[in-house]
Amino acid sequence: MELFKMAKEAMSMKSKLKEMEKVLKSKVIDINYKGILIKMNAKNEVIDLKLPEDITQKSVKDIEKLMLSAFQEAIKKSQDAMAEESKKLMGGMNFPGLN
Predict the structure, then answer these.
(1) Given this model, what pLDDT does residue 17 score?
(2) Is 97 left (phi over 0), alpha (psi -120 to 50) or beta?
(3) pLDDT given at position 92
(4) Phi, psi of 94 (to 5 degrees)
(5) d(Cα 51, Cα 56) in Å, to the nearest integer?
(6) What is the DSSP string of the chain?
(7) Residues ≥6 apart with Cβ < 8 Å to 82
(8) Which domains occur in the chain, in start order?
(9) Mean pLDDT in each 10-residue stretch from start to end of the chain (99 residues)?
(10) Using CA atoms, how far apart are residues 16 and 99, in angstroms rounded to an integer?
């Protein structure tokens, strides 16, 4: 009987994971870091990138630092959104061995 219950929970989890995949892909986060605009979904996929026109007046080293910081900020916000959505969708699930 326990095996049947585990199989049923596994099928439910698979369904919820598919649903979560769709939600994460459709949840778009806009980040503006010092004029650098990054559009990313909650799956950490970059959708769009816009640079300010005056960025070419900066040194390559400064541009690299700005870009790195902008992407780090975007990834952090994307991961936060992913965690939030995961909590919503997976909140009531029982995982064998974890309860």
Answers:
(1) 82
(2) left
(3) 53
(4) -105, 125
(5) 9
(6) -HHHHHHHHHHHHHHHHHHHHHHHHH-EEEEEETTEEEEEETTS-EEEEE--GGGGGS-HHHHHHHHHHHHHHHHHHHHHHHHHHHHHHHTTPPPTTT-
(7) 24, 42, 43, 44
(8) 2-90 (3.30.1310.10)
(9) 79 82 92 96 94 94 96 94 82 50
(10) 19
CA distances from 27 to 57, 59, 64, 75 (A): 34, 34, 27, 13
Residue where the block lists tokens 């009531």 = 92
pLDDT for the residue 9: 81
pLDDT at 1: 61
Rounded to whole angstroms, how far apart are CA atoms 53 and 39?
A: 18
Residues in the chain: 99
Specify the pLDDT at position 88: 80
Tokens of 48: 């769009």
